[in-house]
């Protein structure tokens, strides 16, 4: 991540972002005021949100949440958003299905209960709608009029759609070689879409440059200068998983790693639920999943390193193809601290896993879902994941956006509309 | 629809389909026992489900529904399904968003409140998950082991996914010229997928032939021999719309017409809610939407006919391309009885409407959604729809499945990752 701060405009309005009280450095702990900043003014470390979370009766908070809307705004008391957020125009993502995956469990020998948290049910069919929804509130609060981002595809669609609905201009940046579905989806909402000749990491670097340029004034880059807010959206995955389990922590979670932000925030969300008394404390293990063609965190984990060495991505799992993951070291730390692991699977294993999940549970995942299900299988084979423990696997996107991955899949037969032709094809 | 009955197997188990008590002929009213039949044994008219619906305190029923799961099974007391349906393996569709479309309303001059019922949020991203979910329960009850259908695409995916999860074999039939996304989605769940050289109507005729053949024994064709059950799934759209409005009828609804079944069942659902006292009775108007390239019902409506003359479809709205709509006459009757209308839009208007909805509300609809939004606009222009009345428009599918319709949509510019290149492209 580029080390750079953006000073809040002098006319920044009084900030009402609910329980959020400050920005806090993840490295040195220094606090700074809420604003469109992403690096610590003291040490240039990454910033995250510090809260004054509701204290008192957990049962009352649980009831308040349960009475809320069936989207992420049921957790508004735990998020950096104004209290009336549910009434503002937005896509209202979240409260996606936690699918009990008994068929898949039987096939893989998982006996402790297996669930897929299926975020393809979000408005633009990826988990990115969660993080963008939070960033939109920050953008509104800080007076930005253009929403922007660097994206491997899913985020571009999520930003385009959210901007359209919430009344922002949008200008999003993508690598030039994305899947057709993601490109059309990013463009169809009518904002500016700019393709960059380069990798996602090139796009990201370009955006950091743009944000320091006068051209970028008034622009809220959801994953750059609004990143501390944006990233908090992933906490809602932790909240929903636990609430959908009946206010209970799972034993094991398998999470895909691109920048690593999602995994670190799910861990943060679980810790908050424990601290608030909303779930009973018990050990949980977090497993990180990468595609072998872009597995810098898995490589560091296996080598026993603390530092993540950037790679040049080469995988069909484009939504995870971040060669220089900003939160890589935090992922390593969490996997090691919780007794999890970081594992990777080849593109062929990704495709197999997409088909396995579709065939057993009727869920058509994008390549990132193939990565987590493939890693689940590999972890079981290696004895790193306990088959007798309750396990949740994330599917963060939709197979319709990565059709090429299963392009060989088509009709069993093509016939004339007659019984004779049906019989000739050997189908009777 | 082919006029043919399929006798229940002699060993049909005792039927427990909740409040469903019999099959009833829509033409002559004759009753027959619940079974895998679709045509009246007396007059060959189409059969539908007759219920013994809960009587008594509407407030208690309303509370029971509100305490139910956030999917169609909250309405189990009003559907032909066993009481424990929510605990059986299935995709659990429904409870999709009713989106308040203020931006679109402003653009079109609707002042009475405009909502999009967005069924792209279902598990396989179309409303078909609703009808298939009900058909699966009937198939289970009647002892079928293979799920089948004729499909314009969406249904094939819905059947494939539901069969995979619920433990059925599947074999589905599609026309050979469908969109790539729909073909892959129909195939990826691992069932048999058979492409037929012909139109949807040819596929449909072939399935009717197959069902009378020994080959089709043990096969539940969701939209043929299970059709009376299947069709009831569309009632849940009516239930959800009214509950999401706060247990209130809308004034006007715009519904797409393929076979016409969905529209007739939404009308049935609204009437049930009134009869049960769950909503206050008031007049409502139902508008039917077709693509001009397959508009036999609109043509009959405009000509003042009661009979629908079959056409050969030629439109990009393939999910509505049924040239010989079984429920066409009922659609005419409902539109006329409620003071609605039947209107159609050209393919160009469909594409415009897809972009309009995306740009204003961040919803990327498939072509069928372009048809309803396009028809909404046309009805307003013609003064047939009251802009001051509360209006709900259905989006029944997902834009990712009909990418070709907006294939021209892409990046504003492709640039090198430099500020200079950004400026050269005129984007700064």
Automatic annotation (TrEMBL), chains A, B:
This is Threonine synthase. The modification N6-(pyridoxal phosphate)lysine is found at residue 128. One of its GO terms (molecular function) is threonine deaminase activity. One of its GO terms (biological process) is L-serine catabolic process. Gene3D superfamilies: 3.40.50.1100. It comes from the Bacteria. The keyword Cytoplasm does not apply. Its cofactor is pyridoxal 5'-phosphate. Belongs to the threonine synthase family. Its EC number is 4.2.3.1. Residues 93-397 form the Tryptophan synthase beta chain-like PALP domain. The keyword Lyase applies. Keywords: Lyase, Pyridoxal phosphate. PANTHER family: L-THREONINE DEHYDRATASE CATABOLIC TDCB, THREONINE DEHYDRATASE, MITOCHONDRIAL-RELATED.
